[in-house]
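pasting Putative hemin transport system permease protein HrtB for the record, 416 residues
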Amino acid sequence: MSLFSLTLRNVLHRRFLSLLTVCAVAITVAFIVLLVLSRQSVEQGAKKGYGPFDLVIGAAGSETQLVLNTFYHIGAPTGNIPLAVLDQAQRAPSVDVAFAMTTGDNHKGYPIVGIDTGYFFTRYGDSKLQEGKLYAHTGEAIIGSYVARSLGLKVGDSFAGAHGLVQGDEPESEEAEEAEGHGAGEAEEAEHHGEQDHGSFRYQITGILPELHTPDDRAVFTTVDYAWAVHGLEAEDREITAVLVKPSSLLGAHDLKQGFDGSNGVQAVYTSQAVSEVLNAVDQGSRLLGILTGICVLLAGIAILLSLIAAASERTKDVGILRLLGKSQVYVWLTLTTEGLLLTATGLIAGLLTGHLGAYLLKDRLFAQAGIQIEPYHWTPEHGLIVLGALAIGLLSSLGPAFRMYRMHPLALFKS
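structre below
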């Protein structure tokens, strides 16, 4: 009987304990794989999330909040700023290009973003739409590929937006709405219900963006003046949410920040700096997960060790017979180490598959919530380290029981 056949029979003989050991290894590996894929996706998504726009101008408040809302379509804007700020930015000699952005409405939870169509050429180059054409008039819109896929929208469809950045709940009845709104103003009632429908203003879909693998895939884009048209604002009341700026140089970005920051409730933010703060926060969470991962690795190693100790205790008589039949000490040593490696390798393969399957199942939810595109089929250099690390732990856990059997005399093994 070959060494592998003997090892396989020994593993199958102790099915339950072997299954527990494989599960412990598989869960640990799957957890590590999912952590690696998620961390890499967050880092890549954060880096390419803002494109060439190194500066953003918006209302005073949290810098991180302004950047996340502007480029990643997460959270609420810090407020509105005068339309004149766009004029000042575009006239600044250190500005290559600047675009106004208006936000505040949504369609079924996906943000409606007002921005000039030049934004797409500046950020993505001369890329063609997946279908249709860019918007040109108020009320026309294009949608991200994820929005089109999720909602089943196509070119020519129309829809109404709603106030707010998330889809709210409708009141259950007219009586409930009247009771809840009694004695409260229009703003308080809107806040209670989460959003206000803008059914009288319809958007016509003129095009669908290709897959950009950025947060723009899950947004609806239209003209900057959509918010003014929806709310019927006069020229003197018109404001914007932010100004996206592509400076002509790093020195130009510094001059712009100094010029706009802190004036009339306006702030200018280095995009990369705000994104770095978010990544630092993610790294802090990764360190905690790293500790948990280390504990899982330790438990997996203990599971392998206990399994092989139990196997060695059960198999002393069998090993004694093998030695009396002329099998060498090395053969006996290999039977246990091979068993440990077989259990580890089985758990490793199951863990790799489970980790990537988990990433596949989570990718849409993660992208919908944070605009982070996880790649479930991507293999990273860390995968090689995971494989080597798992096999090393399996081998090290096997050495103790294997050497114990290796050092015993065949008669002593048989008598025991």
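The CA atoms of residues 7 and 13 lie 10 Å apart.
The mean pLDDT is 78.
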